[in-house]
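Deviations from the work plan: none for this task. Representative record:
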Amino acid sequence: MEPILQIKDLQIDVKMDEEVLNVVKNINLEIGKREIYGIVGESGSGKSLTSLAIMGLLASPPLQVSKGEIVFEEEKDLLKLSPKELRKIRGNKISMIFQEPMSALDPLFTIEDQLMESLKFHTKLSKKEMKRACVKIIERVGIPRPEQIMKEYPHQLSGGMRQRIMIAIAMLCNPKLLIADEPTTALDVTIQAQILELMKELRDDFETSILMITHDLGVIAETCQRVAVMYAGEIVEETDVVSLFHRPKHPYTKGLLKSMVGDRSDALYSIPGKVPSVEQMPTGCRFVTRCPEAMDICARVSPDDLEVAENHRCKCWIYQEEMANHV
Amino acid sequence: MKEIMARLKKDKVGIVGVIGVGLVLLLGLFGPWLSPHDSTEMYKEHMLEGPSATYWFGTDEFGRDIFSRVVEGARVSLYVGLISVGIGASLGFVFGLIAGFFQNWVDNLIMRIMDILFAFPDILLALTIVAVLGPNLENTMIAIGIVFTPVFTRTVRAAVIAVKEMEFIISAKAIGVKTHKVIFRHVSPNVLAPFIVQSTLALSGAILTEAALSFLGLGIQPPNPSWGAMLNESRQYMEIAPWIAIFPALFIIVTIFCFNLLGDSLRDLLDPKLK
Amino acid sequence: MFAYILRRLLMLIPVLFGISVFIFLIMKMIPGDVVSTILGTEATDEARRQLEKQFGLNLPIYQQYLQWMGGVLTGDFGVSLRTGKPILGDIISRFGLTLELTMLSAFISWIIAIPLGIVAALKRNTSTDFGVRIISLLGVSVPNFALATLLLLVLSLAFSYYPPAGYVSLFEDPMKNLQMMILPAFVLGTAMAGAVMRMTRSSILEVLRQDFIRTIRAKGASERIVIFNHALKNAMIPILTIIGMQIGTLLGGTVIIEQIFSLPGLGQMVLTAINQRDYPVVQGAVLFIATVFVLINLLVDILYSYLDPRITYK
Ligand SMILES: Nc1ncnc2c1ncn2[C@@H]1O[C@H](COP(=O)(O)OP(=O)(O)O)[C@@H](O)[C@H]1O
Ligand code: SF4
Ligand SMILES: [Mg+2]
């Protein structure tokens, strides 16, 4: 499958009072054309930072990409583009939607203004053509009476409606890649399912690849083909969805899955402890403080990211030792 | 509080403010021992003389020593500032406490009265009150105190209401603790921070208002020195004797500036959101 | 919208009523009476009684208030004790100058403060930001009368420049009028500029932190569009609040500035009346200024709801 986006060895640092600390590292992944690719992990694991790095929207300072490549359409390294070149891609070939639909739209502008703005940046259409394009996309994202909605202000719409508008804005210029950072987290369950369904349809219609970021394995199961599991700024496991759910390797992934199943049983399981903060990152494996299978070596040396099965990578000493023994 | 002191130490602007305010306070306290001459004594042979070893800041049109007058003026400014902010803060504290406490028609009445006071430009209100009561030191302080009452009332009222809505108050209520007691114990520390900031800023405002009133001839009356009055009197002669305008102006500006520096850093420290 | 404005105007009635009662009562607290002020202490009882009756001073206090208020509402503010001329006419003829001075000061302060505030926000925690902070604090700290005095001193000593004397109105000779007004307006505007600068800085920073700014950037907007089309418009709402509040400082400041620059405006009228103990004039002019202040704040409120669609006209 042809890749639309390849991230190679991405590393993000944060500057804190004279000190430079690492927040995200060793990110390697490849998103294929028309693929829905998931990144899953608890809150604070660096998913949003990774996606903002793709968009070139990291708040710098204090954040900065210190290493790696982000290759788009097999030719351009997004990290090497000038701000102006990046702006041409943003909202055009790569677009993004965010978690909080309630605060993601400018309260002082009408929906129409906010849709048109995108077209003004990226097309040379006449005003009439722009308006027609807006009406069309609003209809496409499943909002009735588009003309009327366009005249309204964000506060007049419900959360689900606003997220549809956000999607409409993102799809306006027919992007090659849509990054969705927790697009349904703030919505209630029925709306959540509708929005995910809509995104899948749009993927088919527009042939857009989607990077689906979530902390919810349910969302992954529903939409994705491939998935990367992130923990404390690193990808710890990466494979196709079926393998992930049926043959998980990494202890962290197993923990996540267990807490998901626990959803339906009485005893709700959750991985003990919290994601370590940037200042207190363990030296060896970053999961060592919470891992039920931790060994001596885990605390000292970080494991390598290895291909443990076909199309299945995992970053854990259990498999590294196993493979070493095989050789 | 300790943490605030520690952070203040890091804030260079705040330090300049503290030092400046400290110097002005010292000047006000020990001024009479510092000044070489009596501030009202007229040296008839030395009218409008420039700065010299005897008259450090020169003399005015009556031959009075400007340095001594400026120093004495610091005393007057601080005195008026402290007393009038004291009046405004006490009135505001009482009204704010009552208003926030009851939040009924009493609250409504108090706040509407404060709204009315707020509807007057500060200077105009002070001016009117002084005009009615008669221009002198005491009335100037009363007028400025009244002008600053609404700000304090609002600050205290807001803090009281915020405390009332805090969870532990609600839970204390639930287990039957006398709410008034709880509120009172918790209001004081919670009011303190905004109250201190407000006081520092009000102090600079009060000093400014006094100077303005005296400038207009409606504050401190001659021959008592006040920076505002000195500046006003200087206008007739300042082209031939610029020092009689420059020194009082400089002292007014530096004093108010230092108080504002201090108040400003305190506000930033207590409300880091604005940083 | 119209209904909203009308309702807001109606809501002003109790406030204005309170203001008028306050002014009336405070004027009644003047020690000594108006009659002795006019006639001197040696006047005959007959003459005194005559005058008391003329001013309605023999009536109970609430009737005195009603009489005064009745007059005010029908455009009769009474007459000056000094000149015997109707007060309202004088107020109106002087108000133009004061309004022009206030507006010009406000305008000058915005064109200084808003750009500097934006720059400070965009370069926060740099030396530029620090510089703006000091300038804005200086603006707030330097009293207008001190600035005016020093400015006049420097201009006369260094440039032999004296502000033109003899006031001409905007309609007689706009150029000369502006020449006269620009210096006082600048002096008056500095305090407001300081406050507006700070507010601009902090509200721009506040807005730039919001989620929707990220959305706009994600659409491919340039920083220029982010700042000027979105951040500034959102920041305008808190900036407007401070502007409304500062108008009071400006109106109060006119009392001092008009005195220093010999401008025959409303502020000078109040001051002269106070010095001459011409109380009906003080009473009328202060009521007028307070009313103007309240109305300007209403105007700001309306502008506010015009800018912010979240505020409903209900
Ligand atoms: N501006 C910042 N400054 C310092 N640390 C940051 C900043 N933004 C994010 N972080 C840290 O980076 C980590 C990853 O954040 P994020 O990407 O938002 O996680 P996720 O989206 O997976 O919940 C968090 O631990 C957070 O504390
Ligand atoms: S490397 Fe060690 S600590 Fe880390 S996940 Fe594997 S077993 Fe657990
Ligand atoms: Mg996130």
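Chain A touches chain C through 27 residues (CB under 8 Å).
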